[in-house]
Amino acid sequence: MVKSIIFALNIITLIMKLIGELEKIISQYFKDNLIEGSPAELYNPINYILALGGKRARPLMVLMSYNLYSDSVNDVLSLAKAIEVFHNFTLIHDDIMDKAPLRRGSDTVHIKWNENIGILSGDAMLIKAYSLLEDLSPEILKNVFLAFNKTAIEVCEGQQLDMNFETRNDVTIDEYINMITLKTSVLLGASMKVGAIAGGAEQIDSNKLYDFGKYLGLAFQLQDDYLDLYGDTEKFGKRIGGDIVANKKTFLTLKAFQKADNNELVELNNLFASSNLSIFEEENKIEKARTIFNKLGVVDCMKKEIEKYYELSLQSLASVNVAEGKKAEIRKFAESIISREV
Q1: Calpha distance 10→327 (Å, rounded)
Q2: Residues 6 or more apart from 193 whose CB is under 8 A from it?
Q3: CA distance 47 to 59
Q4: DSSP sequence for 124-174
Q5: Please, is 113 exposed, middle or buried when counting C-beta atoms within 10 Å of its C-beta (0-12, 13-18, 19+)?
Q6: Is the pLDDT reported for residue 101 higher than 90?
Q7: In sequence order, what DSSP letters do the residues of 78-137 get, joined into one string?
Q8: How many helices (H) and strands (E) does the chain have?
Q9: Are the beta carbons of 117 and 41 closer than 8 angstroms?
Q10: Under 8 Å CB-to-CB from 255, ≥6 apart: which residues?
Q11: What top-level class would CATH report for the domain 2-338?
């Protein structure tokens, strides 16, 4: 009996590819399958942002989810790329809206070229993302397409809410969580779901894997908000304090307003009313915000929130009807998300 169990676990280990192996497969596939065409001004920015790499978390999640049900991930590489191309389309447009100068430590597309090229190249990426779904077999295409479409419109809704919040002073933490769920988390959830659908998972399990990705996405975005103010520029790949300079409503700022007394509220209102500052004034603003946040203990509140969603993600994963040994790499991936510095 013991030998049978050990044999079964060894088989699982052989079938389940390690994260590092999947990352190499994704990286090579992207290098070998550039999005080419003419004019160059349309396609060069597309390949530029894709070549910047990043964490490749979403295509990795597609492959990991699919790998729960099938030992060959080659059949869903185009699906994984579709998710990543769509994600990077949103980044090009988000960077234009946010006037962001850096993405993954390099010039954003609209800085390297211009805003018009950024808009058009982003549009082309969205179309290319959908065209990559054409490789899917007819029996799974419909369900993947439905999940993809639902997620695509939700991401747009989340971005609009994010912009709406810029002119509102009454945003609640619950509203903020809903916004980042739409803007960020649903795409991580969908990455897990479409991989499971392609692998032949039962609907109940594909939904649980969606929940895993969604909750992990919330923890991921909250960690991103933390790193925006407390991270290292070289490791993080973006300017530290960008959310503060842009007067963004994040969990940190909303929790600070929630916990502040009258004097601290005046200080916070004055701080976040400022705009069009010099570089020196921006750095001073960032440091003042960090000082207030530290005083109010909002970082500890955020860490508890991150832990809450991380635990919810693990609970969702645990309920998926797949052998526990097959989930090990996905749990390892979740741990890396929470402990990341970039």
Answers
A1: 14
A2: 65, 147, 206, 207, 209, 210, 213
A3: 16
A4: HHHHHHHHGGGGS-HHHHHHHHHHHHHHHHHHHHHHHHHHHHTT-S---HH
A5: middle
A6: no
A7: HHHHHHHHHHHHHHHHHHHHHT--EETTEE-HHHHS-HHHHHHHHHHHHHHHHHGGGGS-
A8: 18, 2
A9: yes
A10: 173, 296, 298, 301, 302
A11: mainly alpha
Q: Return the structure tokens found at 7.
A: 């044999």
Model pTM score:
0.89
The string of pLDDT tens digits covering residues 25-77 is: 999 999 999 999 999 999 999 999 999 977 899 999 999 999 999 988 999 99
**44's tokens:** 């060069």
pLDDT at 194 over 90: yes
In DSSP terms, 145 is beta-bridged to none
Side-chain half-sphere exposure of 210, counting CA atoms within 13 A: 19
Name residue, tokens 């993947």. 144
Closest listed residue to residue 236, CA positions, set 147, 340, 149, 82: 340
Give the Å distances, CA to CA, from 268 to 16, 177, 282.
Answer: 50, 21, 15
| pLDDT confidence of residue 10 | 39
Contact present, 17 and 68 (Cβ < 8 Å): no
Q: Which two tokens stand for residue 301?
A: 């509140």
Residue at token pair 């097959």: 326
